[in-house]
Amino acid sequence: MITTVASVEMPLDESLKIQKNRIMPEEGKDSGKRISIVTGIHGDELEGQYVCFELIRRIEEQKHFLTGTVDIYPAMNPLGIDSITRGIPAFDLDMNRLFPGNTEGSMTEFLAAEIVKDLCGSDMCIDIHASNIYLTEVPQVRINELHKDILVPYAKELNVDFIWVHGANTVLEATLAHSLNSRGTPTLVVEMGVGMRITKEYCYQLVDGIFHLMQVMGIWQGETITPRQPVISDNNDDVCFLNASVSGVFIKEAKHWEKIHKGEHIGDIIHPLTGKVLDRIESPVDGILFTIREYPIVDEGSLIGRILKW
Amino acid sequence: MVKETLFEIQSLYRDTFRVTGYRFGKGEKAVCIVGSIRGNEVQQLYTCSQVIRRLKELEKAGKLKEGKEILVIPSLNPSSMNIKKRFFPTDNTDINRMFPGYHLGETTQRIAAKAFDIIKEYVYGIQFASFYMPGAFIPHVRMMKTGFEDVEMAKEFGFPYIVLRNPRPYDTTTLNYNWQIWETHAFSIYTSNTEKVDEDSAKLAVKGILNFLDKEGVLTYAGHDGYISQVVDDKDLISVRTKEAGFFECCVKVNEEVHKGQLLARIIDAYEGEVKDCLYAPWDGIVLFMHDEPMTYEDTAVIKLISLRENR
Asked: pLDDT averaged over chain B?
């Protein structure tokens, strides 16, 4: 059943509607549990679109296995998705810095508050992101260290390759995940793929994981996969950041999510006007490259990749 | 006055990203004034340029005090303004969400770090700031309640109002917040607009800054002292919200005193021209903020009133 979570009128014959699709189990099979799948907070992150589609398709195909409620919110920022804009168009605001919102605030804060109200009370929420247009990520769950004891056991069931428990950061208190976690609704943030693209293999991997997690939670009775054993990092010093030393065009050489040794070639920053290699980027550590730059143009400081140290 | 390039970053094809500073006087690092940080902060840049013009005149007239240095940085982000983009050109990040910065981090973190290394040393920090919603303000000083804010000192600007507010999570990475944490007396100055020049409010801001610098012994300025500032808490402001979307027709002006029940604005149907809704003052008050775009969405706070004392 498709319903509207929040709606705001726009000046010219258009409503901004945030919608969800609620899939309920057959009569007599409801365990009372609810899982919410959220995506599209950033309008340029599209991996979650295919996850929502595939999840609904598979549930509808075998609905007799469903024993709880599945709420699917494919577009938290519908204006952004439909206009190929990361933030909220017209306001140029990052929607994931507006939570928990304010029903007395601006229109954007009002929407954020309505979203939080609707999601609160879910037994689990999964917020799917797709990095941005600059970087590709392996399927991973990111967890604020404040909530790791509750969330890491759930994340292990999600069939991702990597779980990154990162340090607390005041700015991140304005994210949807933090707002929900601090209100007692466990929320996992998934990052995978790259902005403006859909990577079907990653989407299938995550959908498999969501079904497995639903099974563990008593929402799905059908067969599911055995989840991958993710690499877990809960020490900030485990992650090595690679930033561009100069502005130029980045040409990637290393492969994503493969072991890499200290001194190994990751890529070059070149200058097409002079024909020169401005910087040869080599790995400073032994590890595995879990983030790699996708968009070639870099400024001094642009993120080239992240390596999880062995 | 010495004009200098404070720091620069090479680009791929565009001209070098340069941050320019104007130093007046030598000695104690007394005051740092920052103009625009975002590419749409035209009024902030204009006001800063007028501060530089006036400081040059005062320097020529021998009115700057010995042993005090003033640094003015008109823009921390010229690359964005040159292409009419609000945030940083290549990654669309906001430099005013990157303080205190990180020298080994991403580009805007590096810009913030390079800038903050220079400007954190000053006793007083003044930033011409902009609001995230489009609209016009009564010129005022805005301060976050960090425990380091000095409201009495803020009164020396002689602006009509000082607005206090609690910091939100994202504020912890703004210039003003970090200045305060590093024990600089920090003030955000809001003039009337952002994307267009308002000469009158720029003049008021320049006078306010010169008043402040005079009272703090940085220069000699014999201007009008300005207003006795009223201190207002942001949570006590009265928001007037739209219930309909359409053309926004305001019926009052910023700084106008309005009375309970007075018509403040009309919302006009964008296709049929009929009045869809009227917004009335819920209390007696002064218009601090007024939406200034021709159209509005539903559920938008388009007017903020300062409650008159009689209401309290």
From this structure: 95
Q: How far is A294 from chain B (nearest CA, A)?
A: 13
Asked if B214 and B242 sit in the same domain, the reply is: no
A309 touches chain B (CB under 8 A): no
Q: What angle do CA A292, A149, A240 make, to 5 degrees?
A: 25
Question: Within 13 Å of residue A66, how many CA atoms lie on the same side as its CB?
Answer: 22
Q: Does A248 touch chain B (CB under 8 A)?
A: yes
- Count: domains in chain B: 2
Pair B224, B242 in one domain: no
Q: Would you call A247 and B295 a contact, using CB atoms and an 8 Å cutoff?
A: no
Write the pLDDT tens digit of every residue in A232-251: 999 989 999 999 999 999 99
| Chain B residues within 8 A of A105 when measuring between CB atoms | 239, 301
Report whether A56 contacts A140 (CB < 8 A).
no
Low-confidence ranges of chain A (pLDDT < 50): none
Does B246 lie in the same domain as B154?
no
Say if B13 is an interface residue toward chain A (CB within 8 Å).
yes
Q: Look at the block and give the residue holding tokens 């980027």.
A: A281
Nearest to A174 among B91, B92, B170 (CB): B170
Give tens-digit pLDDT for B152-169: 999 999 999 999 999 988
Choose among B90, B239, B271: nearest Cβ to A299. Answer: B90
Radius of gyration of chain A (CA): 20
Can you give the pLDDT at residue B71?
98
CB-nearest partner of A174 from B107, B168, B297 = B168
Decide which of B232, B250, B269 is a domain's last residue: B232
Nearest residue to A243 (alpha-carbon basis) of B94, B106, B112 = B106
Strand order across the B124-128 sheet? B2-9, B17-24, B68-75, B28-36, B124-128, B185-190, B140-144, B161-165, B230-233
A12 touches chain B (CB under 8 A): yes
State ipTM: 0.89
Contact of B169 with chain A, judged by CB distance below 8 Å, is answered with yes
In order of start, what are the domains of chain A with their CATH numbers?
2-233 (3.40.630.10), 236-309 (2.40.50.100)
With CA atoms as reference, the chain A residue closest to B105 would be A301
Subunit contact A104:B239, Cβ cutoff 8 A: yes
- Flag whether residue B270 sits within 8 Å of chain A, measured between CB atoms: yes
Residues linked to residue B232 through DSSP beta bridges, in sequence order: B163
Write down the pLDDT at residue A142.
Answer: 97
